[in-house]
Q: What sequence folds into this?
């Protein structure tokens, strides 16, 4: 059994008297310690799949298993615990607490788990050892995203889920963030999933899953993933 398995997953939203099939019979698997890129046009179902994987949303039918555990069958309380301990999220717009310093933002998240990484060391790892006491407003977009990544990984999650992590960044800064995510995957053996619109970065992934209209349209693996530094777009 793969580390992550989506099996016949369907998600239907009902609102305003109508219904939308955000996901329809979605099947895919992801290996432990791999980097996966999820591609697809707007509305294809990428965020819905990531939110289900992260315990932020429920599914209508099918099963989702992570590390041998059926997360689609969790109670609300178990789902909250799963989200807190097993999942690190990185969003497009960082979502840092503006009144806390970089270090305090990471400390806040790391307190969730006893077996967390040292917050200061984690910030040093993402290249921000010299900005520990700065507030988010004193940091560039790329630096804020580094804090957000440090915050997400400091609690040692099983999965690092990233929804358009470079969407608000310029080309060079975006490349540095992608390099950081690839390094985290390789050096810490963390399972990383990245949603993006940018098909050009596909060669950096171990696996590429392409969504279209709520379904997996294509799924492929790279035998030799490229370093982000060698990819041009
Ligand atoms: N809470 C909701 N209620 C109703 N419909 C929803 C809800 N969330 C998502 N949808 C619909 O489900 C479909 C898939 O949305 P989703 O956000 O997963 O797409 P996406 O591929 O992530 O798009 P984008 O790249 O624009 O973020 C869309 O048609 C969307 O309108």
A:
């Amino acid at each position: 059994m793969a580390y992550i398995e989506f099996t016949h997953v369907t998600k239907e939203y009902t609102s305003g008297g109508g219904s939308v099939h955000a996901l329809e019979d979605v099947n895919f698997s992801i290996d432990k310690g791999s980097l996966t890129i999820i591609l697809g046009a707007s509305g294809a179902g990428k965020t819905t799949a990531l939110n289900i994987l992260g315990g932020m949303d429920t599914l209508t039918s099918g099963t989702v298993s992570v590390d041998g555990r059926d997360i689609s069958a969790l109670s609300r309380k178990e789902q909250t615990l799963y989200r807190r301990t097993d999942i690190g999220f990185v969003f497009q717009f960082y979502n840092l607490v503006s009144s806390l310093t970089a270090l305090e933002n990471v400390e806040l998240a790391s307190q969730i788990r006893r077996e967390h990484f040292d917050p200061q060391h984690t910030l040093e790892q993402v290249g921000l050892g010299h900005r520990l006491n700065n507030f988010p407003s004193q940091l560039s977009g790329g630096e804020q995203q580094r804090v957000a990544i440090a915050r997400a990984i400091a609690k040692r999650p099983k999965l690092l889920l990233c929804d358009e992590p470079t969407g608000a960044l310029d080309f060079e800064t975006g490349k540095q963030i992608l390099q950081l995510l690839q390094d985290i995957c390789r050096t810490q053996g963390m399972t990383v999933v990245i949603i993006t619109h940018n098909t050009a970065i596909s060669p950096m992934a171990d696996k590429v899953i392409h969504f279209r209209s709520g379904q997996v349209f294509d799924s492929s693996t790279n035998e030799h993933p490229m370093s982000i530094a060698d990819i041009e777009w």
In short: The helical segments are 46-53, 76-86, 102-110, 119-125, 141-154, 171-188. The chain is about 30% helix and 30% strand. The CA atoms of residues 160 and 177 lie 14 Å apart.
